């Protein structure tokens, strides 16, 4: 009886702690909703009459443009490498994923430098061909340029999910379509594309989340969106209420995208009968069409990764002697330490949440736990505002009641707040790989440990964690890379004069030190490539 009471006591403690963690993670969402009850200030009225329509128009055009761009590039390349044999196909399977390692803001200023007067293209035209060009060859520092940059950076989301869907489709379906008189193009439009629709829309939704989160690209190109409006309201106008209102509208756009993605799937099922399925066999094309596909994939890879990466390497070669000093290596260590701390904490919290689900039979707990994974769908600027407002209020209360009024900020502007924001933003990134690990081992192993008399904590520590070690490491790695690239959230919540690799690269680029910023950018890109390699291996193994 006493042992049973102790177990109930510790279970209640565990459940209470889990709910508190979920409540903290949901802080930005609750803050935005609560602060909407405050009356608007003068800045909001002026912004509503003059700038709000422009914010909405630019944001929607950016979303639609990038959605179309990522659809065309991602689906076409996924279909090509999955269904046709052409020179270089095996290499393009993973080369076309590499642009994901290029943050949009780094791609933006790299292309600006490449097309500038002193860039390699104009230098070649002047020195080799004798042509003189006034200004940039192509002016990309505008809304169409932002659509181009974000499309070539984000199309791998659609490519990855579409390719995985095409690989799972049965050859039986294609043979049936051929018997009914459909050619390759008709089979693609009428069979393969509808079957892959959930995956394609999911990839476009992920790209749209990144577009709404983007600050560096639109800021550098001078495109006014809701994200730049939040920064302008917060830092230039000092109007918290206006920033809250803009954050609420941006969050509403996110939920509209998620609702549309769920609505298009509905209760439909897009699957084939696995009992009669046959693996896809790639089609051998005529020589001309083979090389046409090679040219298309090569051009896309050149524009989306190879050319800007070579430009980054050249800038590093020109500037590394004056840039890579003791301060730079300290910046690298600081950024890596921050990302590692966030990754570890996300993994710990994810394990606690998922283990609570495994132990509990409460049906509502699973829905409540999903709150912890909402952060990845919310733009970083919105999360930053939703965290900063209560933190500033807590600081004010501490100074008025416990500390001296002469003391400055105690909590806000600290590393702990920044790490907490990373946990909120990237919980889903670490949560899902660990969840997959738990599902793979099943519940029976856990039950066997409990039958042997081990407590819940010992069962987790000695049985579950060793079995899901690879999944936990994957979650930590993914969070590590995302934190290293994160810009808008870090810009708002970082301590004064505190830089990470992302903020340093962006600040130097906006101060016209593009070549010098390449040193920090190169480390971000190379680090971002690591999980991409693992991701490609997972897709290949899953569909062998």
Structural write-up:
The chain has 25 helices and two strands. It is mainly alpha-helical and 544 residues long. The protein has a two-stranded parallel ribbon with strand order 1-2. Helix 6 packs across helix 8. The longest helix has 37 residues. The chain starts with a helix and ends with a helix. About 1% of the residues have low confidence.
- Helix percent band: over 70%
Number of helices: 25
* Strand order across the largest sheet: 1-2
Q: Could you tell me the strand content as a percent range?
A: under 5%
Number of strands: 2
Secondary-structure element series: HHHHEHHHHHHHHHHEHHHHHHHHHHH
- Low-confidence parts: 273-278
Rg (C-alpha, Å): 25 Å
Q: Mind summarizing the main beta sheet?
A: 2 strands, parallel
Chain-averaged pLDDT: 79
Distance between the termini: 53 Å
Tell me the structural class. Answer: mainly alpha
Specify the overall morphology.
globular
